[in-house]
């Protein structure tokens, strides 16, 4: 691993630490391990929101697969299951109710992430102050928080997307039987999985952005004064 580099600031002659990107990833990973249970709760909230998004989208993909078989029996089964289908409809789209439920769940998730990260910043005042006193740049502190959020977001988003898709498949099997699995549109399902996972990663980064900026702009002296 490359050793840390130093460079001078403009005017005051103090030397600031510039760590390699790989070292930043290592520090972020160790920080998550130290705060494992708090990180697990944040990741779980993201996972639940993403799994709901994945469940809705994959469920609609399963319904579209049944419609593509052009069997009146399957169409009737979908209508009886609550899908709003007309006589000429060839696709099932996300209903307004589903859309608002998904949006609300994602918003609640983001608020939870922001709250958890602000608490994490408060708990790490002295740690942040120590890093800054040792010469860490603002962008280094910002990078640490973003890397931690990216790791949590990736894990929660991937697991959530997979869990939501699995439950959607089981739900389709229970409601429509084996034809639901026989007519699976795999390209659409993979697209739904990718969309859910990407949304989860973006939400994780968006939720940590403000707390990370607060931590990065913190004055070292003020941070060191905080009593733990």
Number of strands: 2
Shape: elongated
Record the strand order, biggest sheet: 1-2
Average of the residue pLDDT scores: 83
The biggest sheet, with number of strands, parallel, antiparallel or mixed sense and barrel status, is: 2 strands, antiparallel
What are the secondary-structure elements, in order, as H or E? EEHHHHHHHHH
Our estimate of the beta-strand percent is: under 5%
What are the low-pLDDT stretches, counting only 5+ consecutive residues below 50?
A: 8-14
Number of helices: 9
Q: How much helix, percentage-wise, in residues?
A: over 70%
> Measured on Cα atoms, how large is the radius of gyration?
23 Å
End-to-end Cα distance, whole Å, is 33 Å
Structural class: mainly alpha
Membrane topology: Multi-pass membrane protein
Main location: membrane
Keywords: Cell membrane, Membrane, Transmembrane, Transmembrane helix
Subcellular location: Cell membrane
């Amino acid at each position: 691993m490359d050793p840390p580099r130093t460079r001078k600031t403009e005017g005051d002659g103090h030397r600031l630490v510039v760590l390699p990107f790989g070292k930043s990833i290592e520090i972020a990973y160790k920080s998550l391990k130290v705060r494992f249970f708090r990180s697990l709760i944040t990741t779980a909230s993201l996972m639940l929101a993403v799994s709901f998004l994945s469940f809705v989208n994959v469920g609609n993909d399963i319904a579209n697969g049944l419609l593509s078989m052009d069997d009146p029996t399957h169409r009737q089964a979908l209508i009886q299951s609550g899908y709003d289908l007309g006589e000429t409809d060839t696709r099932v789209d996300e209903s307004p109710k589903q859309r608002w439920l998904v949006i609300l769940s994602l918003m609640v998730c983001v608020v939870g992430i922001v709250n958890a990260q602000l608490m994490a910043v408060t708990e790490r005042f002295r740690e942040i102050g120590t890093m800054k006193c040792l010469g860490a740049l603002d962008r280094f502190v910002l990078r640490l928080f973003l890397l931690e959020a990216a790791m949590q977001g990736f894990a929660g988003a991937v697991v959530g997307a997979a869990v939501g898709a699995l439950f959607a498949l089981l739900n389709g099997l229970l409601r429509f039987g084996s034809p639901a699995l026989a007519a699976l549109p795999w390209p659409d399902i993979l697209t739904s999985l990718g969309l859910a996972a990407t949304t989860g990663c973006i939400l994780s980064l968006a939720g940590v952005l403000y707390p990370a900026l607060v931590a990065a702009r913190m004055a070292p002296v003020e941070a060191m004064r905080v009593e733990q």
